[in-house]
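The methods section describes the discrete structure representation at length, but only in general terms. What matters is that the chain and its backbone geometry are given together, residue for residue. Nothing conveys this as quickly as seeing an actual entry. For illustration, here is how one protein appears when written out as sequence plus structure tokens:
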Amino acid sequence: MNKTKISWVEHHPEDNPKYSDSRYKKGKIIDSSGYAKIRLPQHPYAAGGYVYEHRLIIERILKRYLLPKEIVHHKNGNKQDNSPDNLLLLKSIGEHKLEHRHPSERRKPGEPNSMIPCRCGCNHLFLKYDASGRPREYIKGHFHRTSKHKLNILINCACGCGEIINKYDIYGRERKFISGHNGRKVSICLLK
């Protein structure tokens, strides 16, 4: 079985004057996903004799076949709007997933990882995205902090050492001593 190689122009006869328009108009269907398909069994990437219309339009513009890994994205989301200004050629499925990603999701490749303040109100700065590219709003352990007005209250340690501490811990619980100083006041009084 000897297959002869058919040129790109033969697959797109509307661009070749030697073919009549009737040869190209084979039939159009809408598949179960809502995409328009054109009957073109001689196309090298035809599946069941049909090729997606949006891929054919981009092929016509580029004057070459699209690689199987190349994806054509509909900018407005309408799968049947195959106007050239609505189609965007992407190099891979990964790029196509980025087009559909919600802006609040993971960090895009090449997107800067800027410093942002913690939402708990402590004003500590940290990187917006973690190592996996997930957005963060709080420093680890700060999510359970209570209202902002409690966080900036400073008091002296109750043991009398003179150290200044936050009145509330990271969970919003009231503090009187630095960790380990709780029994210190008693021991200092006994020594006097």
Remarks:
- Residues 148-191 form one domain.
- The helical segments are 8-11, 21-24, 53-62, 93-100, 148-151, 184-191.
- The chain has a mean pLDDT of 77.
